[in-house]
Amino acid sequence: MNMSNQTSAIQAVHTRLSDAGVSVRTQISLASCTTFRIGGNAALAAYPETAEQVKLVLDVCRESGVPCAVVGNGSNLLCPDEGFDGCVLFTAAMKHIEIAGTTVTAGAGATLASVCCAARDRGLAGMAFAYGIPGTVGGAVFMNAGAYGGEISDCVTDVTCLHTKTGEIVTLDAADCGFGYRTSRFSGNADVPGTSDIILSVRLSLSQGDSDAIRLEMEGISAARREKQPLEFPSAGSAFKRYPGRFTAQLIDEAGLKGYTVGGAQVSEKHAGFIINRGGATERDVITLIDRIRDRIHTQYGIWIEPEIRCFSDCIIL
Ligand SMILES: Cc1cc2nc3c(=O)[nH]c(=O)nc-3n(C[C@H](O)[C@H](O)[C@H](O)COP(=O)(O)OP(=O)(O)OC[C@H]3O[C@@H](n4cnc5c(N)ncnc54)[C@H](O)[C@@H]3O)c2cc1C
Predict the structure, then answer these.
(1) Sign of CA dihedral 297, 302, 306, 311
(2) 138 alpha carbon to ligand 1 midpoint, in Å?
(3) Do 257 and 293 meet the contact criterion of CB atoms below 8 Å apart?
């Protein structure tokens, strides 16, 4: 599609979605929607509130030949400096949280913080590990987010998602979600490609606990994060996955890479596992830094460490 056709296709998607009552915005800065603060503008952003609206966004984009990407809270993403000439479907408006007994049902766009707090207030234990992970429930299931000895897959009962290829909405039991270390069937792994399905909501099974004890556990985790992680700088969390049996941050530190800088991107001096944006970092700076770290670790230890940060291209489903 040439530039003016693409512009009118995007305009047509904008009109159809807003006429149908879906909240849409134009020329959204990806830098301002992601924790790394890197990336140019997306031509269009849509904020569906329901499964029907998600389906509509997809159908309209498909019919108009406009590419579509799914983004949660943008806390694990490296976005392109040149932006995205398509529509970003943000899940933020699907943020409902319902609690019945020890079961929590959360929309994909509910933040982990809001789910942790809602569970704590009802005296439900099992989610405290996720306090401080700045993502959504959908993003957490996508990559099986985890910390402090827990993973979201420990609590998931089932996941309702939209198959983007067939348009079907299905509910998958946790056992069918292909959870592994920082992977799921949705994200795929080195052997299996991801599914391009959109996670709509997630049911979590928690256990009865004590609100005050849960509050203390969450405060302890928050304090530990503030002490160890460079939360004062933009980042996308741990830059690399753990290598089996090795702490990646320790390897990077031992290789003398703390503080190593490319442009505005730097290996944090506080925590070698984080790449931080010191100001004005570009996508290219981060990719170059990641490549150099991987090369150095390979030369020194003979192993290839894998990035945990995801490229925006992974978000594109159409
Ligand atoms: C300071 C900091 C600390 C962090 N600490 C941790 C940690 O301790 N443990 C940890 O695991 N991670 C951590 N992270 C990384 C990040 O917060 C998690 O990976 C989180 O789960 C990402 O969720 P998100 O909503 O931001 O996803 P995004 O970054 O928006 O998206 C990530 C991927 O998920 C896909 N996706 C998102 N929502 C959906 C959906 N509804 N359906 C289908 N695909 C979807 C996107 O397309 C993309 O490919 C940290 C990040 C930061 C900045």
Answers:
(1) positive
(2) 8
(3) yes
Ligand 1 touching residue 209 (CB < 6 A): no
Query: Atom 14 (ligand 1): residue with closest C-alpha?
Result: 237
Query: Quick check: helix, strand or coil at residue 124?
Result: strand
| φ, ψ (nearest 5 deg) of residue 193 | -70, 155
Q: 84 pLDDT band (50/70/90 cuts)?
A: very high
Whether 152 is in the pocket of ligand 1, judged by its Cβ within 6 Å, is: no
Task: Provide the b/e sequence for 202-232 (b: ≥16 CB within 10 Å).
Answer: bbbbbeebeeeebeebbeebeeebeeebbbe
Minimal-distance CA residue to ligand 1 atom 34:
139
Residue with tokens 């704590």: 120
134 CB less than 6 Å from ligand 1? yes
pLDDT tens track for 143-187: 999 999 999 999 999 999 999 989 999 999 999 999 999 999 999
Q: Is the CB of 315 under 6 A from ligand 1?
A: yes
State how far the Cα of 201 lies from the Cα of 72, in Å rounded to an integer: 12
Question: Ligand 1 centroid to 74 CA: how many Å?
Answer: 6
Per DSSP, the three-state class of 217 is: helix
Q: In whole angstroms, what separates CA 243 from the centre of its chain?
A: 21
The stretch 242-252 carries a mean pLDDT of 94
Instruction: State the Cα–Cα distance between residues 206 and 309, nearest whole angstrom.
Output: 28
Cβ atoms of 234 and 35 closer than 8 Å? yes
- Which positions are annotated as active-site residues? 182, 238, 308
- pLDDT digit string (tens) for 177-218? 999 999 999 998 767 788 889 999 999 999 999 999 999 999
The 10s digit of each residue's pLDDT in 19-29 is 999 999 999 99
Q: Supply the pTM of this predicted model.
A: 0.97
